[in-house]
């Protein structure tokens, strides 16, 4: 294991044995960062479809007839009416509204499947078990037998359908609708991600980045082989992160710290339902939303020359104003990063990223990341349970 590693030899992905595979670092060292050419892998995504091994994510399953109303009561999302074959995102917040867990969910009609960041599943499971009381719910850790794959690119659904199609509760390709785009903040959507199950049992979830597959871990290699035979390229986590960064999608533990609230990193649109209340941390969500001025904001940085290490400090005129979360070389944009900075920093400020692994880097905020200047016109009374 490397420093910061969460893996043992038994938990390493079998895809690390493929030619050219280079393991990721820290919490990502159980899967491949790339297979020899990260930029070519990004072009494979843009040109059609590519499969990314995300099998290091932790997977939980919540069964029982009370599961959706129970999850509704302890997370930031409206889940009581989620319904079968729908998916969404949710947060578990601290009593003060700080983000503790980011959940991606898929309900198959009898169970709700939850995948979370590597190494966080055990902590989340203990919290869920502590909140069961007398309800008919059964949370369980399924990470040892279930793995996550993601198919990216404009042909992701078609390739997944060709590789995995068959009778089931929902077709993974054209028969499964596109995910719904987030509405404006204050008009959240319940269950924006369509879910299906193939005849062989693979759970398919349409996502903004493409298609997620929850597969039996024993069939991980076989599923990837079928996807590649259907036309998918093979891409590592670096390609996934480059696309994620360019799309300004945060990752728990990278673009978050112990002080993060949902408003700062864009999760208010995708993981928080503002027409519900009575969950832990809801008071902070309501207060900051109605004031409209979170203390920090997520921005896309363009870097001069190279990528930055995670947690590199961001400064303006020698004054620290934030930190870098994730950084990759994008095949079109060059070196980019997601950073969390003070809201008061102007978009045209000249930034310096103080990378602990090298020389300081000049950085510029993407001009599309202009902060909102006014509070939303929404009465506080609309936030309810």
Provide a brief overview of the structure.
Helix content is 18%, strand content 29%. By secondary structure, the chain is α+β, with helices and mostly antiparallel strands.
Descriptive terms for the model:
Gyrase A, domain 2, Elongation Factor Tu (Ef-tu), domain 3, six-stranded antiparallel β-barrel, eleven-stranded mixed beta sheet, 8 helices, alpha+beta
What does the radius of gyration come to? 20 Å
Distance between the termini: 45 Å
Number of helices: 8
| Portion in beta strands | 25-35%
Helix content: 10-25%
Count the strands? 19
Major beta-sheet overview: 11 strands, mixed
Assign the CATH superfamily of the largest domain. Answer: Probable tRNA modification gtpase trme, domain 1
Order of helices and strands: EEHEEHEEEHEEHEEEHEHHHEEEEEE
Secondary-structure-derived class = alpha+beta
Question: What count of domains describes the coordinates?
Answer: 2
CATH classification class of the largest domain = Alpha Beta
Low-confidence stretches at least 5 residues in length (pLDDT < 50)? 166-174, 373-385
Inertia-based shape: globular
Mean of pLDDT: 90
CATH architectural name of the largest domain: 2-Layer Sandwich
Q: Write the CATH fold name of the largest domain.
A: Gyrase A, domain 2
* Strand order in space, largest sheet: 8-4-7-6-5-10-11-12-9-3-13
Write the layout of secondary structure elements.
Layout: E1 22-23, E2 32-34, H1 38-47, E3 50-53, E4 58-63, H2 67-74, E5 86-93, E6 99-107, E7 111-116, H3 121-130, E8 138-141, E9 146-152, H4 156-164, E10 193-197, E11 203-207, E12 210-216, H5 220-229, E13 233-235, H6 237-246, H7 267-270, H8 282-291, E14 296-303, E15 313-316, E16 319-330, E17 334-342, E18 351-354, E19 361-365
Parallel strand pairs: 3-13
Antiparallel strand pairs: 1-2, 3-9, 4-7, 4-8, 5-6, 5-10, 6-7, 9-12, 10-11, 11-12, 14-17, 14-19, 15-16, 15-18, 16-17, 18-19
Helix pairs in contact: 1-6, 4-5
